[in-house]
Automatic annotation (TrEMBL):
Species per Swiss-Prot/TrEMBL record: Methylobacterium durans
Keyword Amino-acid biosynthesis set for record: no
Protein name as annotated: AI-2E family transporter
The keyword rRNA-binding belongs to this UniProt entry's keyword annotation: no
Family: Belongs to the autoinducer-2 exporter (AI-2E) (TC 2.A.86) family.
Topology class, membrane: Multi-pass membrane protein
């Protein structure tokens, strides 16, 4: 037997030293900064890629928020399963019809008016522009105004001068720009409808994700700001769109009773213009001018008076109650948000401006009044 002693084990290698706490915190901070930089870079790249279609996406979000209650009511009325396609498709097509039908009517009416304008220019080329009847009924200066019109505009050279000023190059350039703009806006409208379909179909999941992201990024106040902005969109739709449509209907009836030419077209223009504060007076002022051109002084005064009464009640009582009552936003900030939004973003600013103002006012109230939670309308 081998009685030799067993070899003693040699020294074992020491385990690697644990990283110092400061080094670990430094690594965590550097990784966090790298993640933030990556998120910002990817977000900027995504916005740059989608910048041409951002208006379509924003319009889809606004329409989905504004029509969300009606769509949810339709879902409760016709539950067609979790993966529903028919109801979002039907709602999207219905909205497209709501927008396209008035545009088609306005296009046909504009084509007729263009034919009438061409006939007027041809008649002016042959005989000049006749003296309108309202000049002879002016309370002051009727004879002088009639004499000036007869000496200046009531001869055939006026029509020829007008036609000479409309050179072919300018007309062709205008037609090309108009056609390019029509194609561009048609494409954006199509993308808006596609995005709206997916928002209708997956709206609940998207809303839950947005609220979760706001809560994780900014805490409970972020979720409250998001809900406040949604409420402001609802209030703006009620206060601008619905009130504007009501003004258009009421003043359209006034146009019919007063004998204004093309009352339906002017009523539709009044409804669109009334969505912008102080926009309706431009249209009913045009209607009154058309009546004056036909010598109807009393109906023109009635149209102006009715327009002032309707717009005063809508702008000072109905609209502030709808928008300010929903968003708890003073009407001054509503007005500034609408006008500033239109100046900055165009028609989208009608809805983005009040939403941003509502969020800012909510943050200001939280900062000045304390952190207590306030219910959002």
């Amino acid at each position: 037997m081998d009685h030799r002693p067993s070899p003693t084990p040699g020294p074992q290698p020491a385990p690697p030293p644990a990283p110092a706490p400061d080094r670990a915190q430094e690594n965590a901070r550097s990784q966090g900064a790298a993640r933030v930089a990556l998120v910002l870079a990817l977000s900027a790249l995504g916005l740059w890629i989608l910048h041409a279609f951002l208006p379509a996406l924003v319009w889809a979000v606004i329409l989905a928020i504004a029509l969300g209650p009606l769509y949810r009511r339709a879902e409760r009325r016709w539950p067609l399963g979790q993966h529903n396609i028919l109801l979002p498709l039907f709602a999207t097509l219905l909205i497209a019809l709501v927008f396209l039908a008035p545009l088609a009517v306005l296009g046909v009416q504009a084509a007729r008016e263009a034919h009438d304008v061409l006939d007027f220019v041809r008649s002016a080329e042959r005989t000049g522009i006749p003296v309108p009847d309202f000049l002879q009924h002016l309370p002051f200066g009727a004879a002088q105004a009639t004499r000036w019109w007869s000496d200046t505009l009531s001869h055939p050279d006026v029509g020829s001068e007008i036609l000479h000023r409309l050179d072919n190059a300018s007309v062709i350039g205008f037609s090309r720009n108009l056609g390019r703009e029509v194609v561009r806006r048609s494409v954006l409208f199509g993308f808006t409808l596609v995005a709206l379909f997916f928002l209708f179909r997956d709206g609940r999941a998207v809303a839950a994700q947005v609220l979760t992201a706001c809560n994780r990024l900014f805490g409970p106040r972020g979720e409250r700001v998001a809900r406040q902005m949604v409420a402001s969109v609802h209030g703006t739709v009620d206060g601008l769109v619905l009130v504007g449509l009501g003004e258009g209907v009421l003043l359209g009836i006034v146009y019919v009773l007063a004998g204004v030419p093309h009352p339906v077209l002017l009523g539709a223009l009044t409804a669109v213009a009334a969505m912008i504060p102080f926009g309706a007076p431009l249209v009913f002022g045009l209607a009154a001018a058309l009546l004056l051109a036909n010598g109807a002084v009393a109906p023109a005064i009635a149209v102006v008076a009715a327009g002032l009464v309707v717009t005063f009640v809508a702008d000072h009582f109905v609209r502030p109650a709808l928008i300010g009552g929903t968003t708890r936003l003073p009407f001054l900030w509503v007005l500034l948000g609408i006008l500033g939004g239109v100046e900055t973003f165009g028609l989208l600013g009608l809805f983005l401006g009040p939403a941003v103002m509502a969020a800012l006012v909510l943050l200001w109230r939280d900062f000045t009044d304390g952190p207590e939670q306030r219910p959002v309308a």
